[in-house]
């Protein structure tokens, strides 16, 4: 039976990570465990940046964006020698279990630690919704709402000046932020890895709009769909006669206080992680399926294919143009 648990956040930060940290620490303490935080993800683990915390440490953070224990990337964590040092650091503090909040890459690190004798559980923390083993990742809902706020504002000026604006959103090869925000905003076009639209087709559709009933347009694009969204805007302007702008929303999508949905998802996942550790589970990741909190072996989870939202993509053709 484990006697202590540590928690760390890894990879890109996401709103709701703090709520997950809070849930792990509070549940751990309630169940009689010593609780620790590791600052700066696997980097801090390697460097021994580990602190024992009480329940007050996580007071007033459920509503805060980012991660109060910082996040980092440490590519060298793939090397066994580096991980051995990290395991040593945990042993020094008599820590026998670890909760890792992050994405797929962080899950791999968690799996490797499990193989080295540390009971480790992964929680899905990323705005991108690119983890196949959960319907929603912690942070996705907040980022989606942030994007919608931005698009609302861009819409006002875009419509006033009868422009076309491309809005590039994050997603890391997952089109969910673009698809969901595009539907929620009723934009003219949504371009994602699961729903690509060629440059020529974009231009054709814009020409129809320009000479049709609507003289302005919003287009939401997933990152990495075009080499440079600003170059695309220039070319489309020349070829359509529209005044065209491009906005890359960038890191503002990661910020802000977490939505109620993300706080609750994070809390459910954090509580479940500690419960699983107390049941002797390790090397698994927690997620949500059909509103139930579930868990899978990390290797099985990493092999899963993400759902393509065919129903939502079909809707674009019915209601967005
Ligand atoms: P995310 O967790 O959001 O997918 P990354 O892919 O950047 O973000 O991974 C975060 C960290 O997880 C990396 O910096 C590295 O420390 C660790 N990691 C990634 N892949 C592996 C791996 N194959 N083995 C061990 N650790 C890994």
What are the SSEs and their pairings?
Elements: E1 4-9, H1 17-30, E2 34-38, H2 41-47, E3 50-52, H3 80-92, E4 97-102, H4 104-115, E5 119-124, H5 140-160, E6 163-169, H6 176-185, E7 189-191, H7 199-210, E8 217-222, H8 229-240, E9 243-248, H9 260-278, E10 284-289, E11 292-297, H10 298-303, H11 310-319
Parallel strand pairs: 1-2, 1-4, 4-5, 5-10, 6-8, 6-9, 7-8
Antiparallel strand pairs: 2-3, 10-11
Helix pairs in contact: 1-9, 2-3, 5-6, 6-11, 7-8
Bound molecules: adenosine-5'-diphosphate.
Adenosine-5'-diphosphate binds at residues 10-12, 42, 73-75, 77-78, 102-106, 108-109, 112, 126.
- Shape descriptor reads elongated
Helix content: 40-55%
Bound small molecules, which ones?
adenosine-5'-diphosphate
Relative strand content: 15-25%
Q: Work out the number of β strands.
A: 11
- Main sheet specs: 7 strands, mixed
Spatial sequence of strands, sheet with the most strands: 3-2-1-4-5-10-11
Mean pLDDT: 97
* Uncertain spans: none
Following the backbone from N to C, one meets helices and strands in this order, namely EHEHEHEHEHEHEHEHEHEEHH
- Number of helices in the DSSP assignment: 11
